[in-house]
Specification:
The chain is an alpha/beta fold. It is built from 24 helices and 21 strands. It is found in: Inflammasome.
């Protein structure tokens, strides 16, 4: 009976959404929302013996050799030598899903579905539990599961059937170096808390009990010295297939799930970031709000930069609110490190660099940088990397716009906050700076400046706006030949303006140009949305020429992107947008070698009548066929059509 009382208590506790990634609406079933994660698994003897072992945390779920998707049953499965692990260390950066996996273990055990080898599971939430200065192991058990009708000491007699879980071990914050002579072997003996826990880790106390420990990579080094015969499991995040699955589990409406995932799949930056479970939750939370309030995502008020800022606000929630100066200085140094790394193609940073920058703050560092522990036999210090490359690029962009009282100097040297140097380097040869430049545009929008100030407490300077505007206008003037119409022919311009998402800025940037000319471009859904936004705010646009361009969208029934001759979906489902329609609002539209076929002619004909401003349409090297042309003629007969020239 007391076993079932314990199970029921654990199930109730585990179903409470206390984690950062918990949806703010009514708590769903953990089973219905849990999405399988990708992990690497190693025994203690192998740990650290190969490059890229535990602690890399780069979110490369699809590229890591030996990575596999896992359910919680794999945590205590026998390893290659046939031995069932007694100690499992679950490693992952903040937001990777460690606590969610622990909750899943407890719910499965509590319901009697899995982990039935254990009669009792005791979970110590190291981040939340209020622990006494002195306690026996029996005291801890009573505190974990109050109301037991049998003494904790009696429960602990059958060691093999007990699992202890320490969630967020790094939060305990005490020294793991304790004299062996002072360790305990009696679960009823009251000792200083660190000695009681060390006795459990060192196996002088309940040596046959099992342990599951979740920890961040930055705290792994000291823990390794305490354990023996442990298995390491590192969470790498969501694979490509699991990202899609997560969206469908999050949204109750399949149509909305499809629309939201198409939106993200068409944005390479967002899609890549969604390997991190908490980023997938962030994106889904924002898109759910957008889909509830609007009919489509074309007017989505949250750009990629907006989602990154929301993610940052969630990471920093309730942290250092009493000392904003510490947080501001930390972010300044973090952004400086990120920017210098981007300039030097550097993603790994030595421990000395972290300390010299003043970033070695245990309350903040693990949320942004992951630690890679040296391999056995190596004598160098730990190295650190940002949780994801796009996060490093985001903070690099912040470096140029965060207000600072003086020069911020990192261990890598002095880096000037010269926006023009960044833009010119990108224009000439450094195309790898594209994402950083895109975030730069997003950060200086009025919405971003206000959000960063009110929500995160960071001051963003608007001085860069004028430099960005002048650069955009100048780069395209240089590409246009004298005497010819001024045209925009770089797709990234539309990405930058879409990222800023300000009507007045787009009007100013494009106001001097009259032509849009794109060649051999694969237009993803994100590209089409960026184009649509800019064309709607481009008053002087007279001519659009697309040569060899194809329109792509993501088909949920297929594994690959689909190239369609036209926009193959035109608002047939709620939330979808007709991205092609703004193209017809110009005077002249040329679609050359764009793989147009008979199937798109009915939509073309309808658009001819809906856009009376279109005077010239050219459909060159297409396969319309006689029946396609007949459909076009139906459109020409509609009274609203004002087309003068059809080629």
């Amino acid at each position: 009976e007391h076993r079932w009382d314990s199970r029921e208590h654990m199930v109730r506790e585990s179903r409470q959404d206390r984690e950062l990634g918990a949806c703010p609406r009514e708590s769903p079933s953990l089973h219905s929302h849990f999405t399988t994660l990708t992990i690497t698994r190693e025994t203690r003897s192998k740990h650290g013996a190969k490059d890229g072992a535990v602690g890399t945390g780069q979110g490369c779920a699809s590229t890591s050799s030996g990575a596999a998707t896992t359910t919680t049953t794999m945590l205590f499965e026998p390893s290659g030598d046939g031995q069932t692990p007694q100690v499992v260390v679950l490693v992952g950066a903040p937001g990777m899903g460690k606590t969610t996996m622990v909750r899943k273990v407890m719910v499965e055990w509590g319901e009697g579905a899995l982990h039935t080898q254990f009669d009792f599971v005791f979970c110590i939430d190291c981040k939340a539990i209020i622990l006494p200065m002195e306690a026996s192991l029996a005291d801890l058990v009573s505190q974990c599961c109050p109301g037991l009708q049998v003494s904790a000491g009696k429960i602990l007699d059958d060691q093999k059937k007990i699992l202890f879980i320490f969630d967020g071990f790094e939060a305990l914050g005490f020294s793991l170096v304790q004299p062996k002579a002072e360790l305990s072997s009696d679960p009823r003996e009251v000792k200083p808390l660190e000695l009681t826990l060390m006795s459990l880790l060192k196996k002088t106390l309940l040596p046959k009990a099992s342990l599951l420990i979740t920890i961040r990579p930055t705290a792994l080094g000291s823990l390794r010295q305490c354990l023996k015969g442990e298995n390491y499991v590192e969470i790498l995040g969501f694979s490509a297939a699991r990202r899609e699955e997560y969206f469908h589990r999050y949204f109750e409406n399949p149509n909305k799930a499809d629309v939201a995932f198409r939106f993200v799949r068409g944005n390479e930056i967002l899609y890549s970031l969604c390997v991190i479970p908490i980023m997938s939750w962030t994106v889904c939370t924002i898109l759910e709000q957008e889909l509830c309030g609007k009919k489509n995502l074309l007017e989505c008020s949250k750009t990629t930069t907006g989602m990154m800022m929301f993610y940052l606000s969630q990471l920093l929630k309730h942290r250092d609110r009493d000392n904003p100066q510490v947080l501001q200085q930390f972010l300044l140094q973090l952004c400086s490190l990120a920017a210098e790394g981007i300039w030097k193609h550097k993603v790994l940073f030595e421990e000395k660099e972290i300390k010299d920058c003043g970033l070695d703050l245990p309350g903040l560092l693990p949320y942004f940088l992951n630690e890679r522990i040296p391999r056995e036999g190596e004598d160098h210090e730990s190295v650190y990397a940002f949780t994801h490359l796009h996060l490093q690029e985001f903070f690099a962009a912040m470096f140029y716009v965060l207000e600072d009282d003086g020069e911020t100097i990192s261990s890598l040297g002095r880096l000037e906050k010269d926006v023009n140097k960044l833009l010119e380097s990108y224009n000439k040869s450094r195309k790898d700076l594209n994402v950083t430049v895109r975030f730069l545009f997003g950060l200086v929008s009025q919405k971003s400046i206000e959000y960063m100030d009110k929500t995160i407490g960071c001051r963003i300077s608007a001085r860069a706006r004028e430099e960005l505007l002048e650069w955009l206008q100048g780069r395209h003037r240089g590409l246009s030949h004298p005497g010819q119409a001024l045209k925009v022919s770089e797709m990234d311009t539309f990405h930058f303006l879409f990222e800023m998402n300000e009507k007045s800025f787009a009007q100013s940037a494009l106001g001097h140009f009259t032509d849009l000319d794109l060649q051999d471009t694969r237009l993803t859904l994100y590209d089409q949305m960026a184009l649509s936004f800019c064309i709607q705010h481009w008053a002087g646009l007279g001519s659009v020429t697309l040569r060899g361009c194809s329109f792509h969208w993501w088909d949920p029934e297929a594994e690959l992107d689909v190239s369609v001759p036209w926009v193959g979906w035109a608002g047939e489902q709620p939330g979808e947008v007709r991205c092609a329609e703004p193209l017809f609002s110009v005077l002249s539209l040329r679609l050359q070698w764009c793989r147009l076929s008979e199937s798109c002619c009915a939509e073309l004909a309808a658009l001819l009548a809906e856009q009376p401003g279109l005077a010239q349409l050219e459909l060159a090297d297409s396969t319309l066929g006689d029946s396609g042309v007949r459909l076009l003629c139906e459109g020409l007969r509609i009274p609203g059509c004002r087309l003068r020239i059809l080629r």
